[in-house]
Amino acid sequence: MGFRNIDEVISRLRAQTGSDRLGFWKYFLQEDAYKNCEQNVSIMHPFLVRRHLMIVPAVFRQIDSFIQLLYPVRPEIWTEWVMPSWKSEEWVEANRTPGRPSWLSQEEYENLRKALAESGLKSQLNYYKVAISDANIEEDNKIPKEAHSVWKPALFIAASKDFINVPAIGRAQMAQYVPDAKIVELNVGHWAFLEATEEVNRELEAWLDSLGFSSFSFTWISSTISVSTMDVDIADDEQHQQQLSQLQGSRAAGKRTVVVDDAHPFELEAYISSYSGKFARTYIDRLLHIMSVCPLLAPQALQLAIEEALKGRDTTLYQEIFHRYQRAYAEAGDEIPELSALAEPDQQWIEETNAKNQAERTKLEVELKTYSSNMIKESIRMAHRDLGDFYRSVGEHNNALKHYTKSREFCTTSQHLLDMCMSIIETGPEAPAGAAQAQKEKKNAERLKVQTKLDIATGLSHLGQNNYEKAAQTLLKAGPMKGLEEWTGKLIAPGDIAIYATLCALATFPRSTIRAQILDNEDFGTYIEQEPYIRELLESYISNRFKTVLEILERYSTRHYLDIHLYQHVQNLTNLIRSKSLVLYFQPFSAIKLERMSQAFGWSVDELEQQIVALIQSGEIKARVDRQNKVGLIAILKAKETDQRAALFAKAIKSGQEMQAANRKLLLRMRLYVPDPVVARLQQADLVVKPPKGQQQGFNFGGGHPSELLGGDY
């Protein structure tokens, strides 16, 4: 509908939010609004005098009133004097001047006053008249629908105290039309670039750095454009375009397209059925991930995601489903149908849900203010909790975390603290903050009930940080599946825990630990039963059937890559498991033909040799590839021979040196405790401790101050 009927827009906003929000438009659309504002000028300007055919005194009613309405000292002024209809006119007529905002210097303020006086306000206010007219409607209708969205990197800086262009609406518009935009929210008013100049510049620089432009873009601009008093050299941008192409190519190379075929089977419906419950957000998040990395499954994932999203109230997530499919279609081309052939966004559901969400938000915020004014501690805690639950349900996780953490100071029992921590964990399972805080709480019956959840959340945190050993240790401590309670399907499936823990353990644990903590672990055995191939993988690894291990990893690689938590780690984990397998296979041998090893792993000799050489260079295998004494054309891998007698002597010498150093430190410590009778006898004996040859001479323990001993090499 746009702004073509401003009264209808304001009525709708009033019904949804309880405020006109755009009420100032009605004043600015009046024919004589600019005259009213121009009369309030504090400097003599003959042009304005002649135009209005009136005698103007040297001191006018202040234009400061109009400027200080647009550039308020406090952002909250807009809620009272800009958003309601006709209040802007009342402000100007009453000549209100609360003062110049601190973020606007006096020089900037004077320049602004001068510019407004010289140019007049008629042209500026014409913007609002054009906005409600149909002047551009024909041109707008010529824009194709597919061009409505921007698929390039973008930065959107929102202002949390901008009460007209509220961040929530901006986020929704970005999700709909600029899905790849990075969104940053600053705690300032409408004029963010003036109020927080340094912060805006930092965000711009960080965004450019993330795109890779900092390394060449500014250098390119400064080195290719030369300005002098006589001429301007126009730079050849061929080099710049080449660099941009390289940058885009490197980004594309970092994304992996997952293939589903007979060698890499994957049943989407069977997989996604493990995630269910009352609007399980992970259900949709996983489907969105699948659409991103496997375009061939995108049509099926689209239908499932839409069906689940309509059960909730997150309109931004609902619209993201359609944008994600459009990107998948752009990558797959004709291999999948167009979006219009499958589904269209339900605009009526979006509008109705947004209206309900706004009404619920207003109700909860009013309750929080009421409880805060009454200073009822328990009620304030519950109000913050309810607001956190609401924001989490509509996808505003930052606001949800803010209210959950604010409830901390109003918690009065250990159960309250535990509930707060669990809410934070459920808002972002990969964030370690909530899990770490909950782990620090004193062990009690309440915490023991959720220990399984805490272990899983901590394990996911370690996995996200590439700390695979700690991830395996923590996940393997998880108790029986019943400890997951409502998390089963809502946040994670039991089969996921088996996969994460097993892959991390195979990549980092010795075989004895794998057998003891996984295969002989009854509690963890129930998780393994959810994914039968995991037990086969473990048994093959323990039995030295490494070819089978690698075949299983390859066959189920699609399942691993399509997992939202595991996607970034599959390649690293596979490489670690492969390297450990090679080391374990070679361990019992002093020499072995590479041909025999290649048969055991199912590789060609050349592929195996590359892997072996890499492990030798990294020091994981202490051996050499013998090409001189090879049998036929096959090289031999020989372990480095160790002189056991020399090794034993070296170990004995090292132990003696360590013992000598420990004894000298003990004697020094005894010397510092003078009252001890044993030390007194040592002093009388004039004991001298000599260092090993080649070191500084020792100190006489019979004389001198103890502090003198600290100067020696101990």
TrEMBL record:
Note down the stretches annotated as region Disordered.
Answer: 693-714
Where is it localised? Cytoplasm; Nucleus
Q: Where is the PCI domain?
A: 467-639
Which keywords describe this protein according to UniProt? Cytoplasm, Nucleus, Signalosome
User: What's a Pfam family in this record?
Assistant: PCI
GO cellular component terms, alphabetically, are: COP9 signalosome; cytoplasm
- Assigned protein family: Belongs to the CSN1 family.
Kindly provide the name given to this protein in its UniProt entry. PCI domain-containing protein
Which species?
Pycnoporus cinnabarinus
